[in-house]
Structure formats: structure tokens, C-alpha cells
Amino acid sequence: MTRSFDPGRRRFLGTGLALGCSAAASPLLTPVTFAAVPGENRLVVILLRGAMDSLDVVQPYGDKAFAAMRPTLKFGEAGGATDLDGFYSLHPALKPLMPLWQAGELGFVHAVSTPYRDRRSHFDGQDLLENGSASADGTLTPARDGWLNRALTMMPGADVRTAFAVGQEDMMLLDGKAPVSAWSPDAELDMSPQAHDLLDMIYAKDPAMQAASDAAFKLANEESGAMEGENRLGPVPLARYTAEQLSRESRIAAFSLGGWDTHRAQHQSLPRALSNLSDAILALKAGLGDTWGRTTVVCVTEFGRTARENGSRGTDHGTGGAMILAGGAVKGGKVYGAWPGLGEGDLFEDRDLQPTDDMRRWLGWTLRDMFDLAPSDIEARIFPELQMGKNPRFLA
Amino acid sequence: MSISTATIAALRYGYGFRPGETPPSGAADLTAQLEAADPMSAGGLPSVVHVYELIRARRDAVRAKVEDGEKGMSDALKAANQAVAEVRLPLQARRIVPPVMSPQGFRERLISFWADHFTVISKGVNLATLGPLMVENSIRPHVAGKFDEMLIACTLDPAMIIYLDQNVSYGPESVAGRRNNRGLNENLAREVLELHTLGVGGSYTQEDVVQFAELLTGYTVNPERGVLFAGNRAEPGAETVLGASYGGKKANPEDAKDFLRDLARKPETARHIARKLVVHFVSDTPDEGHVAQVAEAWGDGGDLKAVYAALLDHEQAWKPEFTKARQPLDYSIACLRAFDAMSFEKQRMRLAQQTKRHLILMGQPLMQPGGPNGWPEEVDAWITPQGLAGRIRFAKFLSQRFGRKTDPREFLEATLGDAADDKLTFAVSAAEQKWEGISLTLLSPVFNRR
């Protein structure tokens, strides 16, 4: 079940967007952050944690150097992929999204990255992706907060909250026995009112525990959550729940999908992650109905993977990657971005796709076009040292 | 109110008090634990080959069932599952039972620290068993020894080799690599440098990662023999890593070990681990002088007893404020100790199983963090509404089961000693029912911090 609660705006803005590092600490808690802001446009940011192999998703089959780099990872026609524009083909696991591509509601930006270089650490890369800093070595901005969070502070009347999808299936997998019934905070927090009062008393001097306790009891007293009775883990219920929230007062949502760290047998692991993503996007579209027309879904990942496949039919940590754009507000049917080539001397450090653009520029223009933030503010306060340049005009 | 050194020793550096056990009185008693023999040292552990036999028998039963078109569980599969569980469950329980029962709480806390430092996400048929086995084989014996030996043991442990893909890494120019058209996998090499030794800020390059990965080629796991060095997978020739050359013409399993030993000697490794220790035991925002003092005690390759002594020999190590959060595994062990809940041997396995399920609700499924970087340390990651709801539930479960006849005031005194303040003492005595008063002790800020 998902329960929503309000941990308090102050704390939230203080510790970074729930796109925050520690929010994803537990693999069984899937946090979704929501923000209500003025206007009708909807933005969904999906973090693809683990580094998506952009070259296997939006495959540059028209680049003559590509085949030699991917001897076993099939692509293009041989890999069952769908041609997009005569140069790129789309991984077959994303085929369910082709109607969106044809309707101009799906697009990609290739050869982009954050400013992070060289070290190729997931954890630094993800922190940087969430924080939006300009640092190549992974140093975060002094406040260590999230870029989306900083953007919200610039939108008058923004109100943030987080919901958690609490997974239960994994619990049962653990030892084959059903756990002590489903997590049901209302039943489990049925302390006597007096004991609750005493608890409040002993938490008075510990603000962190008091805040956690207040939220837990509030959560327990709320009516049953939106996802009650459904399969609670997995991208589809997550996306359905997100769509429902966005159909009410929320306008911005952010969550993560994992499974992208494909070091081995990528032909097996990547399709799983892509199917999850595809299912999530289709569930968002279905759930949003007419509102889909005002929605932009932006999928970002910490970095790309090696241009050459590795020795175990997978790929290792790289640099340049891709963004996936979906939604009725997107001018899709197009792969954006300048292609750097894969030939001799084209690769970053002779190994990774060379980034030709700062991913933050595309995020910046998304904020500009959807929420009317001033480019000068975006450059100064949201993405340090960014030069927004010319609007790539990828939103309708 | 001031908290005594003895109480700090028990709560910050151990798993709290257990009735009938003599608690440490200070730093000297903590370090003495590491000089004494480990009473929880495990005998009769299953061999890796035996684990594989059981796993393969299970796989065969699955195949036979599919071929026969049987629905549900076949009897053979049930038996095979049972055989795997009989090995897996006691190993998983060893992450809970020894810390509850051992009088050497500091040693057990250190084992837990290193198990997280060398994280293997222990789920799935192989790793759910091999992960906790690694803690017993490659961490426990070295916890009061040398870091370089622990590093070698963990890097070349079957669980780590499988978890970080070393078993599919081949020297691109090796005999087996060329024959099977296979090559390098960088995963283990990168994480050893980034997470286990130098730290992500360390002075290594992408080329060092590749060279180290080549140096590791040859090491793999095989169901018949366990971990082995397959010369035909090893990249021929010498490798230059961090400016030094290793190996020569003929592939030699010692080459990678030589590099790991050198890695353990690096001042950056010492600093990285010193910081992690201070962060884990003392503060999320550690005192730089404290970190430096621990790093200086490192010696040649990591003399761990000297390192721990330096950790304890600092004013900050004994500050009276409890600013760290007890993580759910620490928390549940401390709760079980407070009730002396595992003194009846017959109950241990079942209670460990129940604790394992509660750990999920508290947000820390046993040995299953989100990535190879292990669990987060920050208070914010642990004092959460969901996590607290899980703790409330676990406290209630234990209090109702073990605390119905206990006087909450005596329980508070035995569990927290002089760390209990007046407000808590009042609240505990004011509860309507005994078990509620006991729950309040387990839910108090001071019991959830250290």
C-alpha cells in the first residue's frame, strides 16, 4: 500500500529532493516525490539508476563503426530493432512505445551527459545527476540539495510531499512464508492513546524522531492509500499511482527505476529494464487521459556505458548517454542531439560515447518551457555554471 | 545528567547490555575482546562445493519438474529446497545470533562493519547462501588481524567473485578468452578500488581499473572446485597498475594478491577506511583530527587492532551525545539482548527468522542493501516514518512476548543504565501496562541512537 504523508516542507527542502541520496536507501521502499505548483503542465522525472546503455537503446546502426564494437550484442534489423529515422533503431523491448513515436509523443536526446567525467562511479554519478552540479569530479553543490528541489523554491506556492510504495512481494520471497500479514500501520500503531502521549513526551527533545513519529501516526490514521489491494511493487502500479496524483493537485513527480547496470548478458538484462520503463510510460499515459497532452516525461541516467561490449556480453561504465522524452507535450518522432561518431578518435578516452551536450541544458529548457522559469535564474541557481544557449525547442 | 564511560562502551561500541553478561567498562575492555579467542568462531561450516551440489540438485529438480509438465511443487523439488534452506537459514541466522549471544560486542560490531564494507547483496539462489558464508570465512577470522589479508580473502571469496562478475571476466588475449571470444569485465576491479580501498576520490585512473581487471583474470569459481585460478583465462604479460608492474610472462595467481597487498599499504586506503570507521562508530560529520589519528595507526597493510585502538583513543569517541542512529539490524540485536531472548537454544532459529522479517519492515532487509556501496550511515536514512513504524511493531512483538511479567522500571535500568533521563524514567513508569512501558524503553531516542 502506498501511504502519503507530509514530512514537512522545511525538512524536505533542507535535505534535498526525495530524489535524495538516502531516500533510495532501501531497495524495498520506492519513494515518489510529488509537488503541487501553479499551472496545468505536468512533469515526470524518471531516474534510470545503474547507467542505461544508450547505444543499445537508441542504436546508431547507421554508424559504420558500430558493428565492430558490438560483436554479440545484436542491433538494428539483426537484433529485431525498429528503424527510427534511417540512422537510429530502437531496441525491440521498447516496441510497445512505437505508437507514441509515430504520434510524435516519444523522442530521444543522444550523446548527452552530466558534467561528471572519468571516475565512472554509480554513486557519485547518481548524486551528481540529482544535485545538478557542474563538477567533473563528483563534488556536489554546498547545500547538497536536488536541482528539482531548487527549482521548486523558485515556483511560488510549491508544496512538496513524498509517498512511499512499500514493497511486500520480496518479503514473501525471502523465505517462502507470508510475513506477519500485510503492512498495516493502522493496526500496528494501535498504541493506547496514553502510550502515544508518553511517546510524544520522550520524543520532545529529539526533533528527528518526533518528525518520524508524527508522520508515521498521521500516515496510520489516513484513509487507505491509492494503491491498496494492488500489486504494490513494480513500475505499473507506481506509474498508475503517479498518474492519479498528477490528475489531482500534483504537477511534478519524480521516481527511480533500477536494473540498468548491465555488466553481463545484456541481451537478457536490458530488455527487462526496458520493459519496465515502457510499461511505466504506457501506464502514465493511460492514467493521465487528456492530461497526457500537457505532460512531459524525462528519463535520465547517471552516465552511458562503454561503446564496445565487454568480455561478458555486457558493457561497463561509460560517459555519454541518452535521455528519453515522452508525453503529449513533447515534440517527438525525433532523435535530438549532435552525433559524435564512433570512429577512430571520436570516442571519449577511446572508450565511451563522446558527450556533445550537457544534459542539464535539456533539463533547464524543460523547466523554462513548462514552468516559465527565467533562463538567467536557471543558470544561476538551479544548474551552476550552465550555459543554456539556444532553446532546442523539443517541447510543443 | 552525564552518561558513564561504561554505558557509552556498551551502547556505542557494542550491542547494548544483556542480563547476566559483564559489560565492558571502557576502551581497555573493548580492545581486550580482540585479544581473547572469539567464542562465536564457527565450526562445521559448509564448503562452497557442497553449497553448489545442493543448488545444482535443486536446479535439476526444477528442470525435471518442467519436463514432466508438473504443476506446483514436485516432491523432489520440495526436498531440494529443504536441503538448500537447511544450509542457508543457519548461515543467515549467524548475522543475528552470535551478536546477540557474544560477550564480545565490539568484535561483533566490527564484523558487521566489515560485512557492509565488503557488501555482497545476498539474495538469489547462490548469494543468499554464499554471502553470509563469506562473512564467516573471509571476515570473521581477520577482524582483529591484518586488513590486507581480509582484503585478499574478500576479493577472492566465491560470493564476491560471483557478485561482481569476476567469474565471467577473461583476459582478452588469454587462451580461453580467444577461444570463446570472451574478454574483460571491470566490475570487481572498479569496486575494489572505489569502495574497498582507495575510495572514489583516490588517485587511480580508468586505465588502472582496466589493468587491475586484467591482473584479476584467471580467478573464477567452479562448482566442482570452488575458487580457483584458471591460467587459461589469465591475460598474458605484465600489468602496470598505479605505477607498478605486476606479473610477467607466465600467469601467476600470486600477482593479483601482490597488488592487493600493495593497495592495502596505500595511505589513501588508510584514510578512506579510517573515515568510514569514525563515521560508522562516532559521527556522520567526523572530526578530522580523529580520522587522521586512526589513519596514522594503519601501519603496514592495516594493523587492525592498532587502528581500532586509535579509534577509541580520542575525546570524540567518548562524547556523551548520541548522534548516530542505530541501524535496524543493530537495533533488533540490541532489543533481543535486552530481553536475553535467545538464551533458550531451541528458540533461536525461529526468533532469527522472525527478526529477519521485521528487518524488512524496519527498512534493512538482511544483507540486501541497494548496491555494492552498502547501507547509508546518515541518521536521515534510518529515522524515517516507515522505519519507526517497523520499530514500533518489533518493540511490541518482543514486549508482548517476553515482557509481560517484567517490571518496566527494572527493564529500563538494566537496558539503558545511566543513559535514561528523568523524562524517560517517568514515561516508562507511567505506562498502563507492563509491556507498553517496556516498549517505550525500546522506542526511546537514546535506545535508537548511540
Description:
The complex is a heterodimer of chains A (396) and B (450). Chain A has 14 helices and 13 strands. Chain A is of the alpha/beta class and 396 residues long. Chain A has 2 domains: 2-167 and 232-382, no CATH class; 186-231, no CATH class. In chain A, strands 1, 2, 3, 7, 8, 9, 10, 11, 12 and 13 form a 10-stranded mixed beta sheet that branches. Chain A has a 3-stranded antiparallel beta sheet with strand order 4-6-5. The longest helix of chain A has 23 residues, at 266-288. Chain A is globular. Among the domains of chain B are: 5-16 and 325-448, no CATH class; 161-265, no CATH class; 266-318, no CATH class. Chain B has helices spanning 5-12, 27-35, 48-67, 75-93, 97-101, 105-117, 127-139, 147-155, 158-163, 175-180, 187-196, 206-216, 253-265, 267-281, 288-296, 304-312, 328-338, 345-361, 379-382, 385-402, 408-416, 422-430, 434-443, 445-448, and strands at 219-222, 226-229, 239-241, 244-246. The mean pLDDT of chain B is 94. Classes of the chains: A alpha/beta (396), B mainly alpha (450). Chains A and B meet through helix 5, helix 7, helix 9 and helix 10 of A and helix 4, helix 11, helix 18, helix 19 and helix 20 of B.
**Multimeric state:** heterodimer
Shape of chain B: globular
Radius of gyration of chain B: 24 Å
Helical residue percent of chain A? 25-40%
Which blocks of ≥5 consecutive residues of chain B have pLDDT under 50? none
Give the neighbour order of strands across the main sheet of chain B: 1-2
- The percentage of residues in β strands of chain B lies in under 5%
Largest sheet of chain B: 2 strands, antiparallel
The helix/strand order of chain A is: EHEEHEHEEHEHHEHHHHHEHEEEEHH
C-alpha termini separation of chain A: 36 Å
**Rg of chain A (C-alpha, Å):** 22 Å
- Fraction of residues in β-strands of chain A: 15-25%
Tally of strands of chain B: 4
The count of domains of chain A is 2
Mean pLDDT of chain B: 94
Main sheet record of chain A: 10 strands, mixed
Largest interface (CB < 8 Å): A-B, 65 and 67 residues
SSE-based structural type of chain B: mainly alpha
- Number-wise, the strands of chain A total 13
SSE ordering of chain B: HHHHHHHHHHHHEEEEHHHHHHHHHHHH
